[in-house]
Amino acid sequence: MRFVLLGAAVSALSLPVLQGQAGAPSGLPLPAAVAVAAAAGAAAWWARRSWWPLAALGAAAYVWFLLWPPLLAASYFAGRDLAKGRDSAAYLGGCAAVCGASALVGAWRAGPQEMLAATPGNALFLAVAVIGLPFALGLWTRARHEVRRRAEREQVMRAEQARAQERARIAREMHDVVAHRVSLIVLHAGALEVRTADEAAARAAALIGGIGREALADLRDVLGVLRSPEPAAAVSAPLPTLGDLDRLLDQSRALGIEVVRRDEGEARAVEPAVGRTAYRVVQEALTNVHKHAADARTDVRVRYRPEALEVEVRNGPPPAAPAGLPGAGWGLVGLRERVELLGGTLRTCAEDGGGFLVAARIPA
């Protein structure tokens, strides 16, 4: 829009200049003057892509008709866009040649044009006003933009540095606290498996140890993501998806929860992000069952719709009041964000009778 306004302004200024400035008419008939003014406006509008046509037209019009608006606009773009000193010097040298040629033409035509173009004082004034000042304004505009871009780059670099430091701090905390305690759980589970004479207790200890080792492997990958400048390259193990859902359910069954899985619709391959999100929905729901409704029967439904994948995890009321495990309370919040990032919806609600439902619908 601003280049349309620029073109209109150049045309509007060019026409009266061609009809006569300081008593020096161009000698062009009105239709020709209108055509030249329109060409100058079109060249100014085209400066949004390239300002060189505007500079060429401005130079020719300045030499023959002392038409200054196109050259003034071209000088501003030259100062703004010519980054190399050699290019700027070449442009200013060309403008000096244009002023010299204009002085020669003015002397040849004599009269008012000679007074404007060939008199040293007037020629210098026009050169400074038409070329020098717009060029300096373009230089100032470019410098201001460069300062702004440099400030934005520095701000981005400071933000990235702060993120990297925070990621490193989180990684240290997770390594020193979480990984240490999970390692102790694995060690104690291994000791219990070896020392107990109860076969059922040994199987439970082995299961706890296996889950703890998987947790350590996942934690190692997470620490790699936090410490790596390229997180995508830090994950060494493939992330779980729908194909790993049965193994997740078997782990819950081994801990004493009755879990039943039902699939509805024709099973098909879905996008990896959709499969991983569906797996996390079931995982988080089962985690909450372990925390808040231990031993409660749990139904897991996976529905393959033509346009979406639906996952429901519904547990009944626990047989006895659970002791409960500590939690941060952010599991379902993060899960909702993960589902909504894929354009899906997550519904969580308590049901009549004491059960709980976690249902996700993910476009697939």
From TrEMBL:
It holds the Pfam family HATPase_c. The chain crosses the membrane at residues 30-47, 54-77, 89-111, 123-140. It catalyses: ATP + protein L-histidine = ADP + protein N-phospho-L-histidine. Residues 166-229 form the Signal transduction histidine kinase subgroup 3 dimerisation and phosphoacceptor domain. Residues 277-363 form the Histidine kinase/HSP90-like ATPase domain. Residues 142-169 form a coiled coil. InterPro entries: HATPase_C_sf (IPR036890), HATPase_dom (IPR003594), Sensor_HK_TwoCompSys (IPR050482), Sig_transdc_His_kin_sub3_dim/P (IPR011712). Its EC number is 2.7.13.3. The keyword ATP-binding applies. It comes from the Bacteria. Gene3D superfamilies: 1.20.5.1930, Histidine kinase-like ATPase, C-terminal domain. Keywords: ATP-binding, Coiled coil, Kinase, Membrane, Nucleotide-binding, Phosphoprotein, Transferase, Transmembrane, Transmembrane helix, Two-component regulatory system. Signal peptide: none annotated. One of its GO terms (molecular function) is kinase activity. This is histidine kinase.
